[in-house]
Amino acid sequence: MLNDKQIQDFKKRLLEMKKETEQDLEKHSDSLGNQDSSAESHQELSDMPDHPGDHGTEQFERAKDQTFYEKARERMMEIEDALQRIEDGNYGLSEKSGDPIPVERLEIEPTARYTVEESQEIEGR
What we know:
By secondary structure, the protein is mainly alpha-helical. The chain has 4 helices and no strands. The chain is about 75% helix and about 0% strand.
């Protein structure tokens, strides 16, 4: 079981992770918005049709940015869930069995919901 100091240390770390993730979300959101306006202005500046390779590159970049945005959004939800578990008093306990999650696991992944063994069972390994 985690002591109060450990819980506060993990909370501080989670809040730092949340701040970094908020910045990532903003960056990728801005990037997605900039691609839309860039494509519109590019079309307005030229009557010449775009090269198909340009469209492929734009689609790839947009898909990449969308993936990064979605990953950051998922990470934010994990962080917020972990912070809620701290507030609820069940942080560091497996959501599956209620057993304590080893501190070493939480140090590596502060948002962990399960022990390593339970995680592997869930993932089907």
